[in-house]
Structure prediction request, 454 residues.
Amino acid sequence: MLEYKSKYFTKSLSVFGEPKISTIKQLQKFIELDKNSKILIPNCQDGIYVLPFAKISNNIVCYEENEILLNGGIIDDFYSLGLTNRLKGANIRKNVKIKKCNYYDVNNSNKYDLVVAIRTLQLKENDKYNIDEKINKLMSNVREGGYLYLVYYIDEDIEVSHNQIIRYNQIKKNIDLDKWNILYYRDNFQRYTTHCSHPYNKGVHQHKVGFMLLKKTAYVYKKRIINRKYKSSSIYGEPNQQIYDYINFLKKRYDRNIDILIVDANDGKNVLPFAKCGFNIVCYEENKILLNGGVYNNLKTAGLKKRISDYLISDNVLIKQFNYYETKEIKKFDFLYVDSSLSLEKNNKISLKKKVRKLMSNVREGGYLYIYYDLVLDESEEYNNSYFHLGEMQKIFDLEDWKIEYICERNAINYCNYIYNSNRKVGYILANKKRNRRVHKCHYSIEINNKIEF
Prediction:
């Protein structure tokens, strides 16, 4: 794992600030980078992200046409040492090939293991090209099995021209999922990221930022061409962004094919990402429209069966047309994924504690349980079978048998297009089962004033 720390605070600090090293560490969770990895960085500026990557690989190609950012000088009242001098100061100049031109203006037929565009996709110097043209050019330089990493601004932004605005979820909708796998994706629609002052935006400022890591599918010509109308559309929206983190975690945690249970699968919103990775999926859904297609709550769905058939992953998915909480499931699973199932009206005849206990019973020793659940809007609300109060979920887990990896319960209201309900507080928990619940009981006797009480 890379442990990069800048040692050149006085002589080689970038005018754009320090690189976010957590970003590079996150990439290394997905990508095995070494000294031979070929990396392309367009619009590298004065090397804010060139230097940390050049400490990993000696095959860096970067593009920059601004002479001041390349060789040093004053740019918008900021003094830059320049990319070439910063590389010399870090003794890694030989690892980087610099091309003094605009990447989008020239042809480059070379293929790279990783192409990186961090906060440069919407630079005003590239305004003559639209967003799709720039992304397509970046994609064209990724080899089969290689990676493309994008960081971009969402909605109106002072650093973004009107014709370069990227709307929430816009890029993801335009990704050809026959050719690319989405390994990581997050569009921070409500959360802002704070940036320090730099030549393009003086003073401390904030942006809505999106992140996407794509992997190019190898031998795509062998894949079946399917009807794009059904390819990725769920009436519940796009898969949860955290799913891609869990998929990567599970691949690293297990060296075998694992068993996953998904409760209340709906029309497959969260089933497809797991099934595409070849995991063995068991999912419960009893609604015939969500299974077979039709109009549900005034929205047209292709249905879970059709969607997994189109992706040629039917062999990986076993569908059980029952209500999970009313059925006895004897199999144990490595991972249970539960999204908003506990709050569904069809399940409110069963207490929250019993529903969680049932989920726990289907996790094998060493396995994991993830639950995304709804909270009451006001703590003064009565306890019920649909919504948790703050701290109520954690009390259900016996810490002798379970290790809570993390738990988060948000006070802010979550605004979404969820068709069952919207605008609720939410929580999520990931727990690891240390051992099965003990079946033996202990009996105690207490002696009070020479009288034994049981």
Observations:
- The chain has twelve helices and 22 strands.
- Confidence is low (pLDDT under 50) at residues 1-10, 220-230.
- Residues 313 and 439 are 39 Å apart (CA to CA).
